[in-house]
UniProtKB/TrEMBL annotation:
This is Diaminopimelate decarboxylase. Substrate binds at residues 290, 326, 330, 357, 385. Pyridoxal 5'-phosphate binds at residues 238, 287-290, 385. Pathway: Amino-acid biosynthesis; L-lysine biosynthesis via DAP pathway; L-lysine from DL-2,6-diaminopimelate: step 1/1. Residues 30-383 form the Orn/DAP/Arg decarboxylase 2 C-terminal domain. Specifically catalyzes the decarboxylation of meso-diaminopimelate (meso-DAP) to L-lysine. Residues 36-293 form the Orn/DAP/Arg decarboxylase 2 N-terminal domain. It catalyses: meso-2,6-diaminopimelate + H(+) = L-lysine + CO2. SUPFAM superfamilies: Alanine racemase C-terminal domain-like, PLP-binding barrel. It holds the Pfam family Orn_Arg_deC_N.
Amino acid sequence: MHSFSYRDQSLFCEGVSLEKIADEVGTPAYVYSSETIRQNFRRLDEALKPLDHLICYAVKANSNLAILDLLRKEGAGFDIVSGGELFRVQKAGGDPGKCTFAGVGKTEQEIEYAIQAGVYSFNVESEPELERINDVAGRLGVKAPVAVRVNPNVDANTHKYISTGKSQNKFGVGLDRAAEVYAHAATLPNLILRGVQTHIGSQILDPAPFAEAAAKLVPLVEHLRDTYKIQFFSIGGGVGIVYDEALASGDPAWWEFVDHPKRITPEAYAAAIVPILQPLGLRILFEPGRFMVGNAGVLLSTVQYVKKTPAKTFTVVDAAMNDLIRPALYEGYHEIVPLKKNASEPEPMDVVGPVCESGDFFAQDRTVPTLAQGERIALMSSGAYGFVMSSNYNSRPLLPEVLVDGGKSAVIRQRQTLDDLIAGEVIP
Ligand SMILES: *Cc1c(COP(=O)(O)O)cnc(C)c1O
């Protein structure tokens, strides 16, 4: 679901006009809806009620402190992939005891930091990592809680850059070797075997691969539960969202349609997996990122130039690939809508940014409402893997982020200044 809709001819986020926010903070800028994030959390939490469960929000999807604070207040734990994300969770008042630490390349410093902070579990991706965590824990004179990420070799039918559950991916250990890896881990004196984890990929719109992965792991999970008394089974994140009809359907309740062909509802997701997971009698962890925040954010931008060539029309906007890299990185689609509806006929065009790369586009040969210089647009569903992936490429300052809650809006991150751009640089 999301809380963006037209009132008269103006696009609103909850009770606040996006034109008004653009006037106040300028463009480009990210705007997020608190209501959407809360509703997403509550709806998933409700659907998973039959399970003893914990939702560990995947911080990497959107790591602004205000977003973490909002989810913490809803009761979320956090799935982190770096020491930096652990720092953010702590700064937002989050409990490391509700954190899982994922990632294939954890450094010694990160492991030490996470042990001292008291994370709930390291989700371990290789045997050398088990050895390293054991060594660091030994040096600190403590025992570290671990789960091994198991790769079920399931095809999630998603873009190849965001598929993680196939044997050829770099993540986790193969299902065929998992029992052996646990047996080895059990001999390491400074480890506690706390759980088992899997994550098959991102932007998955069909419940079947989740059920398939869970079912494939059940015999292993039962064995680990009976042999090592593990506490939890995490089935990762990956629940997909609708990108291309966020507003165009014209029906504000489009997301309620359970049988929407491109929609995986929390209820459909739960229906597919709960019957498989419930009999295990373990705590089940979920690590949704995109689902929680994706539809909750938009990127506001202003048209700078309309450039007509014999081949096509290019609409040049002030946002660029450094601000939102999804289209360039994995052919991500974002619906483009005007902040103020105009009467013109839509026409085919490219919507591009100012960066000196041909990959700097938001739409190619797409029919969108005709836009004039100075008009503002929203790139819909930019709340996940948007700001967090941005960079200073072309010496463009990082964007401001604004959080709306009901009739109020708050700047939750200032726009970078030109001085911020060169902070830390030295001419020797
Ligand atoms: C990225 C990631 C997630 C979140 O994925 P989404 O598709 O955003 O839900 C969860 N768990 C792990 C281990 C991840 O790497």
